[in-house]
Amino acid sequence: MEFKYVPTTCPYCGTGCGFNLVVKDKKVVGVQPWHRNPVNEGKLCPKGNYAHEFVNAPDRLTKPLIKKDGKFVEASWDEAYKLIAENFKKYQGEQSACLASARVSNEENYLMQKFARAVMKTPNIDHCARLCHASTVVGLAGAFGSGAMTQSIADIAESKCILIIGSNTFEQHPLIGRRVMQAKAKGAKIIYADPRLTATGKQADLYLPFYSGTDVALLNCFMQLILKNGWENKEFIAKRTKDFEKVKEIVMKDTYSPANVAKITGVPEKDIITAAEWFGKSGQSAILYSMGITQHTTGVDNVKSIANLQMLTGNLGRPGTGICALRGQNNVQGACDMGALANVYSGYQSVIVPEMKKKMEDAWGCQIAEGKVGLTVTKLINALADEPGKVKCVYIMGENPMLSDPDLHHVEKGMKNIEFLVVQDIFLTETAQFANVVLPAACYAEKDGTQTSTERRVQRWRKAQDPPGEAKPDWQIFCELAKYMGFEKQFPYKSPEDVFNEIAKVTPSYGGMSYARLEKPEALHWPCPTADHPGTPILHKEKFAHPDGLGIFTPIEWKPPAEVPDKEYPLILTTGRCIWQWHTGTMTRRSPDLEREEPTGWVEINPEDAKALGIKDKERVKAITRRGSIEIGARVTANIRKGEVFMPFHYVECAANILTNNALDPTAAIPEFKACAIRLEKIAGAK
Questions:
Q1: Would you list the DSSP string of 387-451?
Q2: If you average pLDDT over every residue of the chain, what do you get?
Q3: Domain limits, CATH 2.40.40.20, in the chain
Q4: What is the DSSP letter of 170?
Q5: CB-based contacts of 684: which residues, under 8 Å, 6+ apart?
Q6: Range(s) of the chain covered by CATH 3.40.228.10
Q7: Residues in a beta bridge with 622
Q8: Which of the four pLDDT bands, split at 50, 70 and 90, describes residue 686?
Q9: Could you say which of 2.40.50.140, 3.40.50.1000, 3.40.50.740, 3.40.50.300 is the CATH number of the domain covering 80-131+330-498?
């Protein structure tokens, strides 16, 4: 019997916790603490503690599958590759599209976008950041020149005031929640703004129960109060920013007075005033946010408002300050960094700049897709559903749009219109059911690689066991498939390290990184441009990333969500996660210890709303929006404000995304998951 510990990085949220995989007789059997890891110092949340349980699940994909007469049959890799290559060659440029994945490594995302652009010659490459943090990338890049979290996670513990808005941090990112509690223990004030009094809110010093979609009004009011009381950082504004007067003109309007904003948001006026004072006077205030800010038709506006508030108070570039945009998936930051986006190559080098296109062609040794912005995930789904024939061939790696995207009936219509679909994954997901070919991939425990956490820390995965059956790592699949497509020279890699070395050559922010430098538990934060650079835990210390070094204020007016309550649909629906499950449940629902805790979904409803509708706790109800309806159990609780209901989105049997609205932010093309109109109905005879 052989036991060993293999240190690696968690495959769940974007925190980037490290742990040891326990390997017995060449199989992963458990998880043990890795105390030297600086992110979590040996501590783990429930998902991390049980991150081994899905690895050897009995329904892992082990052989390629080809659909014949409507049914999947097992095939050899050679047969699968030949069929894929034959079909991929039929479709020219924009007739094809590729979806990369926030769950796989940097190396694999880099190869997916390279495969799309160099082999398939399509500009249509994107991934699920479009559904979670596209607004952050656009909003923060507009304000600061860089679209990423500005601080390190450890830095949060140094804050004197923390505003958490649009993030249930203690359930979504528990080990970041630990840093919040460390700050609180040192005397920091914690302000929590959310429609629900979550586990995070229960630890706050001040809770602001506002309606989904009223973020800008609340933030503008904070700025008005800060300016009226002279709490702004005049020196920071003068030396490091521009266009301040444009924002001042907007936020000083009567619209954003505490009395008026109390009516818009539902938050008591006195609490708004207290929050603004705590935040404005602390001198060391941080903001934590996640998808409650980004998943709106006004997502970019929300993010830019947060940037405005931090520039107004000078809370950037110093320990204990900054904007902590908390990434939901383990490698959503890395997938963006690698260019798995419709508008940029790796390192956010724009596809529409001819010099960047030439740089990639020279590096890759071939002509690549036209230098134009391709279809985003959301626009791809719309094209598939509403413009049949525009995109005919789709290649999806590790994504499950049949549960993760809004308005699932619309998504299903699009999936059925695809002429040739290849899905590469570890399980036969809801999306894979529609595929012509399914390729069995290795999971995080079965390959080497890197992933980049929410704090821009690039960390190692280390192989602990072989993949099941004939499953292969995604990077290897790309190399082999490229050979069948006639692009062997462009994909010559013998290991993930070979791929990473190319990433470092073409990606300035990763330029000084190597596997040797990433071997230490501390790893490196990008930007790390040279081999002797120590990495950059805190951005924007002396200047912002714009050419002139200045931060840009943007005047923002509050706009309501695309769909607001009315007589027919009188309540607001918002969605999110619970601590026990993760995203579409593909991995957590195959973990017995996690599934036992929250085995199905629910709808939270305020007792007053429940009483008016005659709904009792645990009773099954029908939830109806303009997109469709589901049956789901009610959870009557005073922890959600009157007029609003909440559902987790993990459960296929009561999929919240059947109900959600696919209205998009006009700039970032992110859907409005966090606010739409809904009604609940009793089901006759339901218990």
A1: STTSS-EEEEES--HHHHSSSHHHHHHHHHT-SEEEEEESS--TTGGG-SEEEEB--GGGS-EEE
A2: 95
A3: 571-682
A4: H
A5: none
A6: 150-325
A7: 631, 681
A8: low
A9: 3.40.50.740
Residue 73: beta bridge partners? 66
Burial of residue 123 (number of CB atoms within 10 Å: 0-12, 13-18, 19+) = buried
Segment 115-137 shows an average pLDDT of: 90
Instruction: Report the C-alpha dihedral over residues 490, 495, 499, 502, rounded to 10 degrees.
Output: -90
Burial of 70 (0-12, 13-18, 19+ CB in 10 A): exposed
The rounded distance, in Å, linking the Cα atoms of 166 and 173 is: 13
> How many residues comprise the chain?
687
Chain centroid to Cα 245, Å, comes to 33
pLDDT tens-digit readout, 144-194: 999 999 999 999 999 999 999 999 999 999 999 999 999 999 999 999 999
| Structure-token pair, residue 30 | 């458990």
The percent of residues in the chain predicted with pLDDT above 90, rounded, is 91
| Higher-pLDDT residue of 436, 521 | 436
Given this structure, which CATH class describes domain 571-682?
A: mainly beta
pLDDT tens sequence across 582-615? 888 889 999 999 999 999 999 999 999 999 999 9
Average the pLDDT over 100-112 and give the result. 97
CATH architecture under which domain 150-325 falls: 3-Layer(aba) Sandwich (3.40)
